[in-house]
Amino acid sequence: MKFKIDFDIEPLPSKINHKDALFFIGSCFAENIAAKLSDNKFNIYSNPNGIVFNPLSIFNSLAHICEDKNYDENALLQSDDMWYSFYHHSAIKAKIKEELLSKVKAINKEAKEALAQAKHLFITMGSAWVYEYLPHQEIVANCHKMPQTQFQKRLLSIIEIVEAFNAIYPKIKKLNPNINIMLTVSPVKYLRDGIIENNLSKSTLLLAVDAICKTHSLPYFPSYEIVNDELRDYRFYKDDMAHPSETAIQYVWERFVDTCMAEESKQLMQQLEEIRKAHHHRPFNVDSAKHQKFKKLFLQKAEDLQNKHPYLSLEAEISYFSV
């Protein structure tokens, strides 16, 4: 008997290689895959503004990056003696307003350099529900626990999302004409919105992404479908029943590797896995001759791999095996 749906994923036209610079932006699920890539020594730049869920805020972040546009004081708010930005995650904060503006400006500059050099841009949309800050009548990326009376919650339309992407697409291509863009929809369920509301949101995103991909001939990676249709079981969710479990993330990661990764990088990842396991190995006796021989062996392997692939970053492993 067959208990799950298997489906083919269209291979990424331009496969990912360890030599490539990768730029991730969007929901927390984007962070999960970016972390997996980082563990495997890919050159990753992820979420300069912190985790962003709705597509309009994602595109707004990209517009500021591409145009090197600074955020002004209207983007800031003060709460509990700290300054925050409506367009950034709460982790990006400062005690002084000018310090936050300076920090955000530096982040924007660094992000622009990363986006200009990236071979691949991955955009992950999480929710089509947005919050408009009523005093400014603008959609924000983060409410920072401000009173709900200051915001209006609404569902984006498919047209709004498509038109917003159409506006940012030429700006991205102007900054980096050779960049490859892939879209995906996060499988994370936003249960605080409600089950029906979450499904309306995901449906809106899926239809908008489909229209965008067809218009611009862009690839789509079905992370949402893998979790909801291929795995399709709450055993693959964490206790909150909203976030995919580590097993689910690992499964999506393996599907991502199969369809998006160059063969050369797949083979290189196997060698890196051996070195990573050795790096995390904790012996009973660090001074034993056996352990010293073990470290010497993997020092040689790490140095050989670093010399053969100078774009890798194995400094931490080499330093550990050298001591």
Question: What's the topology here?
Answer:
Elements: E1 21-26, H1 28-39, E2 43-46, H2 55-66, E3 76-79, E4 82-85, H3 97-117, E5 120-125, E6 129-133, E7 138-140, E8 151-155, H4 158-175, E9 180-185, H5 195-216, H6 223-231, H7 246-260, H8 263-280, H9 289-308, H10 315-322
Parallel strand pairs: 1-2, 1-5, 5-9
Antiparallel strand pairs: 3-4, 6-7, 6-8
Helix pairs in contact: 2-4, 4-5, 8-9, 9-10
Molecular structure report:
With 323 residues, the protein is α/β, with parallel strands linked by helices. It has 2 domains: 21-245, Rossmann fold, CATH 3.40.50; 262-323, no CATH class. 48% of the residues lie in helices and 13% in strands. The strands form 3 sheets. It has a 4-stranded parallel sheet, with helices on both faces. Strands 7-6-8 form a 3-stranded antiparallel sheet, with no helix packed on it. A two-stranded antiparallel sheet has the order 3-4. The longest helix is centred in the middle third of the chain and has 22 residues, at 195-216.
How many separate structural domains? 2
* CATH class (first level) name of the largest domain: Alpha Beta
Count of DSSP E strands?
A: 9
The description of the largest β-sheet is: 4 strands, parallel
In the CATH classification, which architecture of the largest domain applies? 3-Layer(aba) Sandwich
Q: Mean pLDDT, as a whole number?
A: 93
- Unreliable stretches (pLDDT < 50, length at least 5) are none
Give the strand order, joined by hyphens, for the main sheet: 2-1-5-9
Task: Quickly list its features.
globular; 3-stranded antiparallel beta sheet; Rossmann fold; alpha/beta; 323 residues; 2 domains; single chain; 4-stranded parallel beta sheet; 13% strand
